[in-house]
């Protein structure tokens, strides 16, 4: 069951105490200034290929480092006119203004600005939603829905009891891109949200069981699914504080396997004790595609393809989270009877303004290394992009300015190149992964496994 809980509300109380003097019997009346009229503003990042953004209001920082599928929560500000600017964060601490608008914020209102569209397609836009502040009836939740999935046309949305048959049912609401509903009050309780193409019954998104809490305000935005699973959308539930991502109930997790043991033969990979391999005959330096696996706890067993009784990784336990993507490297040495899994969480969302580069140190024979990313193959005066990287360490997704580079790997504090120089071209919006490995059979010369867009056709 997916539950939608608001974040804890922190309330600060300011007490004003008037003090009198025993030496003065005159009545003194303190005249306090009228409190400034206030309004509430919320910003939601719903552009799937946009980088983190900073938001300013009248030139002053309002929010920083807002990433995709994040909501600022409702922020209280003085009622006034605000020049709102959204700046995209680029590699190298550079920024680029991508959206500008003026907001005349009236008292006792809630304003939500949702960045939607695509940077790559030049369709980035703001959906501005205005609601008067109002109490929610006891035992009810308040829900508003926005269609923010670029490239998806009109849809029907069914908000029903759990497992209700929608085949003969009229949709609860229908929305086209950037359209949104009024605020609707629903009895608090358990619901199921399903989305279909307009006038169709084939479900393209299914929330499963969700719980709407009493006297809680939800703004549900259909956003582009950049996580696992086949659904084109996910739902972002923005709360007065924070957000909850509601993925399709069958999203599962995506898992790929990388054979990085230089002295091991081809292997089979088994999940959860199955006698049928999930991956068959995977040779050194080979990489599978992403396999969709149910979320939760699993075991991974790796055995020699020629003889499954020769087990090199025996029922290693892994936990896979819904919506997440992982690479599972088999690393180590068969000769030394030292093979283990290295499970790395991947970041498959593409950013239109930068390349994403992932580096993994899976070379058993190499010690700690320095990794250079330079304009030429001359590293004599260069500073490593990653320094003192140990075996089985990974960089995570590095945001890199698009361009042509040379990758060189050296022993730590050495300028002697052990891997490379390797010329690479990194394009904005690209995903690139490289793993350092031993030579076939083990030892030097070291090499690399290239993945993602390095080998995409």
Could you walk me through the main structural features you see in this protein, from its secondary elements to its overall organization?
- This protein is an all-beta fold and 457 residues long.
- It is 0% helix and 50% strand.
- The protein has three domains: 210 residues, no CATH class; 95 residues, Immunoglobulin-like; 110 residues, Immunoglobulin-like (Sandwich).
- It is built from no helices and 34 strands.
- The N terminus is likely disordered.
Question: What keywords describe this structure?
Answer:
single chain; 457 residues; mainly beta; Immunoglobulin-like; 3 domains; five-stranded mixed beta sheet; 34 strands; disordered N terminus
């Amino acid at each position: 069951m997916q539950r939608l809980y608001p974040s804890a509300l922190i309330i600060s109380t300011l007490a004003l105490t008037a003090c009198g003097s025993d030496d003065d019997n005159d009545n003194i009346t303190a005249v306090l200034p009228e409190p400034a009229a206030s309004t509430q503003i919320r910003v939601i990042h719903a552009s799937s290929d946009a980088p983190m953004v900073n938001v300013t209001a009248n030139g002053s920082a309002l929010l920083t480092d807002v990433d995709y599928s994040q909501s600022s929560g409702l922020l209280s500000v003085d009622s006034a006119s605000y020049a709102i600017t959204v700046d995209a964060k680029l590699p190298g601490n550079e920024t680029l203004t991508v959206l500008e608008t003026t907001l005349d914020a009236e008292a006792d209102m809630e304003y939500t600005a949702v960045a939607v569209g695509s940077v790559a397609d030049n369709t980035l836009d703001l959906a501005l939603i205005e609601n008067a502040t109002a109490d929610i009836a006891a035992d009810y939740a308040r829900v508003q829905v926005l269609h923010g999935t670029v490239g998806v046309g009109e849809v029907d949305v069914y908000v029903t009891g759990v497992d209700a048959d929608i085949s003969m049912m009229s949709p609860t609401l229908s929305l086209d891109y950037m359209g949104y509903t009024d605020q609707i009050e629903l009895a608090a309780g358990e619901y199921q949200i399903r989305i279909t193409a307009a006038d169709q019954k084939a479900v393209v998104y299914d929330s499963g069981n969700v719980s709407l809490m009493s006297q809680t305000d939800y703004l549900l935005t259909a956003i582009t699914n950049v996580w696992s699973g086949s659904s084109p959308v996910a739902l972002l539930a923005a709360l007065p504080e924070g957000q909850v991502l509601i993925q399709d109930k069958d999203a599962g997790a995506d898992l790929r396997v990388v054979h990085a043991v230089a002295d091991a033969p081809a292997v089979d990979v088994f999940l959860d004790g199955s006698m049928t391999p999930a991956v068959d005959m995977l040779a050194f330096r080979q990489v599978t595609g992403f396999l969709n696996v149910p979320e939760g706890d699993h075991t991974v067993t790796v055995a020699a393809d020629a003889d499954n009784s020769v087990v090199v990784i025996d029922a290693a336990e892994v936990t896979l989270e819904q919506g997440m993507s992982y690479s599972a490297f088999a690393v180590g040495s068969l000769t030394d009877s030292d093979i283990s899994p290295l499970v790395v969480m991947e970041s498959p969302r593409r950013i239109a303004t930068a390349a994403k580069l992932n580096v993994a140190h899976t070379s058993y024979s190499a010690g700690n290394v320095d990794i250079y990313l330079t304009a030429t193959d001359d590293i004599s005066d260069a500073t490593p992009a990653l320094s003192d990287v140990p075996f089985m360490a990974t960089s995570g997704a590095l945001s890199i300015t698009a361009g042509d580079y040379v990758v060189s790997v050296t022993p730590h504090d050495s300028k002697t190149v052990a891997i490379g120089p390797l010329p690479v071209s990194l394009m904005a919006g690209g995903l690139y992964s490289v793993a350092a490995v031993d030579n076939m059979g083990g030892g030097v010369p070291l090499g690399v496994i290239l993945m993602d867009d390095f080998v995409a056709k």
